Request: fold
Amino acid sequence: MKDNYCVMTFHSTHHALNFEKALKTKGYDVRLMPVPRQVSSSCGTAAEFPCDKKEEILKICIEMDIEIDNPYTIENKKGSNWFSKFLKK
Reply:
């Protein structure tokens, strides 16, 4: 299991699919997944992306008018998971 990973949440599956398509076209490693339980107990689609590319990805979303909800970092600590929400600038 990874020590940490980043996910983006969306208001709809349509927005998640747009995010995935746009970022993969630009060569980013993006994978759609269910929203992690640490983020929300409701159903939904999230996208896992490289944490070290967060700033670049947020910039691309603004430039390409891709609708996103929030980015999160999911950290695995001693067998339990917890998350931190990135602060928006």
